Amino acid sequence: MPVSTLRMAWRNLGRNRRRTGLAVAAIALSVMLVLVYDAVARGYGDWLLATVTGPMLGHVQAHAPEWRKDRAMDRTLVSASRIVTTLRGDPAVASASARVYAPALAALGEEGFAVVVIGLESAAESRANGLLAGLREPLAGRRVLIGKLLADLMGVRAGDVVALVGQGADGSLANDLYTVADLVQTPVDMVNRQAVIMDLGEAQVLFAMPDEAHEIVVQARDPERLDQLVARVAAVPGLSHAEVLDWRRLAPEMLSLLELVRVAWVFVLVLVFVAAAAGVANTMLMATFERTREFGMLLALGTGPGRIVRLILVESVVLGLVGAAIGAALGLGLVALTHGPGIDYARLTGGGPREISFAGLNWSLRLYPTLAVVDVVRVVVAAVVTALLASLWPAARAARLEPARALRE
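Given the sequence above, the corresponding structure tokens read:
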């Protein structure tokens, strides 16, 4: 593109600074709004994914065939420790742990309560976003954790001794006494209402499951490559005949919710930039009408219609770039201000509960807007392309001008 064309385009935009300023403001406002919405949508998506996959589901799970249907005690994965060790050595795996689930009766006195005993590796589950995130002391021996809502129902406090009675995987009677180390409030509603959590090794002994587990939970280093991770997990010795599923198949309703967020983002993007395109088209069309004689003179002096078209298109691109740069700066600034402290929806709505319960999970009402480089790039590109497309009509009109007629207008 000749430098003279760019210089002329810049000069022409400065002829009517008020109109140009309004067009730049429309583009900047559009870019800022889309970036802020994009940051909220990405933050919501990350929050949703972390809540769904972190505490309970993981990114990938492995089970014995049919176990998810009937939860039979004897449907187990054998050599669980070897499987977990192999998975932890995979560079695509962030963490892996085994779990045992067993129905049982728990009693502090004479009254028994139906519970689910969960045997797990407390050190692995105490990671950030884990089921026992923030746990200070790993479980060991005959010490258990009880969901706070279950403890309130049973009248149990830390330090009490509870009796557990269930059935082992081999059909034997499983019963023993356990000391309540602490009461826990987790993001998983079922755990809060029904669970007694103990060390994996202790659960394996109690329920006659030597080195066996009902579930292997895997966290991915790159959640975008789940299909490859599922294949890698399924190829681990001991899991060749297991049912290996990613979180999308385990919780399809959550996947639909994420897809809805993406569709809403596209809708907002189109809606906002249609408004911006109207402003750019109006600016360029008015500028074209005002410069009809100028274009006629240029055409009469031998300037080709193509040069006129390029001039108008370059003006639009410059308009779009300036507006997009200002809007991106404003949008990034707003996101930076809210990313650290987050957005507290409970406070915005006048207080009330800090969490909501949905789909068996407890959801925090604090959201942390975040942006990726790709978000900024695609919004800026969309703004420039919108400005370019909006100028096609004025450019086509200018290209069809007849020099003699244009000079008389």
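The chain is about 55% helix and 20% strand. Try to locate this feature in the token string yourself.
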